[in-house]
Amino acid sequence: MIPKLMQYVVLPTVQAQASRRQFLLGVFAAGTGIAVGYRILAASPAVASGTPADEAGPHTFSPYLTIDGDGKVTVLSSQFEMGQGSYNGLATLVADELDADWSAIDVRGVAGNVKAYGNVAFGGAIQGTGGSTSMVTSWERYRKAGAAARAVLVAAAASEWGVPPAEITIENGVLAHPSGKTGGFGAFAAKAAAIPTPADVKLKQPGDWKLIGNAKLKRFDSARKANGTEQYTIDIKLPGMLTAVMIHPPLFGAKLKSFDAAAARAVKGVVDVVETPRGIAVVGEHMWAAMKGRDAVTVVWDETAAEKRSSQELMSMYKDLAGKAPTAVARKDGDVEAGFAAAAKVIEASYEFPYLAHAAMEPLNAVARRNEDGTLEIWGGHQFPDVYQTLASQIVGITPDKVQLHVMKTGGSFGRRAVFDGDVVVEAVYIAKAIGYRAPVKVQWTREDDMRAGRYRPAYVHQLKAGIDSSGKLVAWSAHVVGQSIMAKTMFDGMVQNGVDPTSVEGANNLPYVIPNQIVGLTTTDVGVPVLWWRSVGSTHTAFAAETFIDEVAEAAGRDPIEYRLSMLEPQSRHATVLKLAAEKAGWTKPLPKGRFRGVSVAESFGSVVAQIAEVSTDGKGGVKVERVVAAVDCGLTVNPDQVRAQVEGGIGFGLGAILGEEITLTAGKVDQSNFDAYTPLRIDAMPVVEVHILASANPPTGIGEPGVPPVGPAVANAVYKALGKRIRVMPFTKTLNA
Amino acid sequence: MVTLTINGNEHQVDAEADMPLLWVIRDLVGLTGTKFGCGMAQCGACTVLLDGAPVRSCQTFVGDIGVAKVTTIEGLAGKVAKTVQTVWADLDVPQCGYCQSGQIMSATDLLTNNPKPTDDDIDAAMTGNLCRCATYHRIRAGIHEAAKRLEA
């Protein structure tokens, strides 16, 4: 039962693809310094040096892979790795087409060749990782790269052995001919890399895949993560490198007036204290020296233009705005007023969502070094590399091709390293410049910096209203979203059309249900708190509001929540299919043990559809525990089924932590939380048992890094309602459950 | 100068007494497997063993260590630890992997003292180790699997 072929174009985040592309091209054409297709220092050192590679390699086959003389295949990944497994996914595509030995595969992040690495889902004119698009942009590209490399390896072996290429087979990294001749990739790598790769290659048929879709395939990088040898940005140590910590403005928008660093300079190990446009940097021989020095700096800030409102004030303003007419309309179907007028019953609810921190385990950092030849190197989590390359080049006053980015793996990101202003990356460059480029410098944020210096999931208020007729049919729906825009006034401003930032309403303006009369309105607020995409972006709040409110509507109609949803879905739709799969696997129609309660939800994000059924237990004293979550996933064809499971398991834990207890609040503009004592992601004792069921599909792969997140909140909230009779409409849950 | 024994090797480091062991290990000795996550013993990413017992190195001051022996992920040895590390790779427990050195330190300590932990035992022993990727489902499974292999 395969649903109709999915269409990327229906995705809200990609819907305005053309406009985003046009916009970006417009920027490039305007001469801001980024040139389309501009090629900087080539990715591999051997190529960068311009000298012919010796037998040891690496031998470059394309911008996507190299092979060493010892047979090691290195996949050059356009997609940044933050734990989501994109490196593994891209390696799987290459290795399968190449018939490589999986144990001889490694992956390295690359940047600086937008023609080769531009994200197809973003229009192709910019390299970037986000929107769960890594497999979407890589699916053809990296399989073709593997197949092309295979073809030239075969050609090289055929010429050396004097046999027709068609008689050569490859298995597990070994080329063989029926005559008994065999050889590894390494033996032919140098020769093969010199042969032009064919423009057109034939890809394997699905039946011939050995690695793609193989549920038993293990990640290539787990062992190094279990023995402490994996290298992150924090682990970079260059000869003579200094470490800096920042003093950021205490309020968003505050400006530096003056500072006194005399005492700081006297701290042992402190090398310098410098001013940058982003704050003061205390530079030390090591992290602890810089931290001690920082404590000794006194600063006077000009807070005139700073955002000084508290989150409570903002929320109250948002609630007020939610009751008024929206300033923009994201969707309008039918005659909403008439629909409500004719309804037998109308229900209303409002929802509150706080600011959320990404709080990745590795606090933000970057390393910058200016070389004697004038080039600049930056090590970091380069989620938007072209942007950072350009910004860095402008700070230093060199052309972008003189900036080489080393794309590091990072300890999480969840969207945090995909920033418009290059925050921590440009800080490293500013500091290097301020100390006269006399040493390489690593800027390392502490947890407090990471939590207080901003970029949050915006706070939102949703006002929802639904009307049902006398038979319980949903005839009118109105949603009003109030909150900050992520993309307005950034390089993605062109994506905001008719006052609608698609990331504010995705998941709200594309409800799968048949509702004849509906309106989705948006009021975008102007607040000085820096915001950003946070794993699953708009669907972090839209799915919660829609899917808990649909539950209320089902109850008002006196119907079963799944049966009611199915009644408004095309029977063969992806939503209906995953709902039915989840219901079957969770035993929806079977009675639960005493003290256990179920809730359901379904949400589409980033081209994938996920249904979840949560089971909660009560302690009889008003407390609830999430015991089990059953997820059914349609993410198209699964390249790494076990990694799809891992992303959904982790997404459930990530989303659950947020709705249960995470919030960033402000008092007079200052962020109240600073560490994990007050900002509380999920811990193991609150992690439910998770079951992930993947729908078999032959459609092209869609997103999986984020789509596991949106359904968990509403599924749990709907179960909590069954358990306690309380509708949860204010996040996090602690606000309702402890009330 | 302070003398420390880390993973069986003696190190002379130029550190003041109030310097956290975490930064001594990372910045002065140069072992990077021990991670910085919070700096206030809230996340467990910096967990190391001190005479075999897990401590948060960000809140352990070098002046207080004396002759106690420090073990980091790089020096982790013994059947329990090696089994845990093997299982972690076999089950693909890590995602970003940043917290996993600390998780493995705590899991090894748990299994050393409690060869057959229940889910509740695991939750109690591991709750100090945050994983923002929320790999908890597999951490639990990994500890059970390691216990099974160690029993065999």
From TrEMBL, chain A:
One of its GO terms (molecular function) is oxidoreductase activity. Gene3D superfamilies: Aldehyde oxidase/xanthine dehydrogenase, a/b hammerhead (3.90.1170.50), Aldehyde oxidase/xanthine dehydrogenase, molybdopterin binding domain (3.30.365.10). InterPro entries: Ald_Oxase/Xan_DH_a/b (IPR000674), AldOxase/xan_DH_MoCoBD1 (IPR008274), AldOxase/xan_DH_MoCoBD2 (IPR046867), AldOxase/xan_DH_Mopterin-bd_sf (IPR037165), N-heterocyclic_Hydroxylase (IPR052516), OxRdtase_Mopterin-bd_su_IorB (IPR012368). Keywords: Membrane, Transmembrane, Transmembrane helix. Signal peptide: none annotated. It comes from the Bacteria. The chain crosses the membrane at residues 23-41. The keyword Transmembrane applies. Residues 227-305 form the Aldehyde oxidase/xanthine dehydrogenase a/b hammerhead domain. This is Xanthine dehydrogenase family protein molybdopterin-binding subunit. It comes from Mesorhizobium neociceri.
UniProtKB/TrEMBL annotation, chain B:
PANTHER family: BLR6218 PROTEIN, OXIDOREDUCTASE WITH IRON-SULFUR SUBUNIT. SUPFAM superfamilies: 2Fe-2S ferredoxin-like, CO dehydrogenase ISP C-domain like. Pfam families: Fer2 (PF00111), Fer2_2 (PF01799). The keyword Metal-binding applies. Transmembrane segments: none annotated. Residues 1-76 form the 2Fe-2S ferredoxin-type domain. InterPro entries: 2Fe-2S-bd, 2Fe-2S-bd_dom_sf, 2Fe-2S_ferredoxin-like_sf, 2Fe-2S_ferredoxin-type, 2Fe2S_fd_BS, Beta-grasp_dom_sf, Diverse_Oxidoreductases. It comes from the Bacteria. Keywords: 2Fe-2S, Iron, Iron-sulfur, Metal-binding, Oxidoreductase. Gene3D superfamilies: 3.10.20.30, [2Fe-2S]-binding domain. This is (2Fe-2S)-binding protein. GO terms for molecular function: 2 iron, 2 sulfur cluster binding; metal ion binding; oxidoreductase activity.
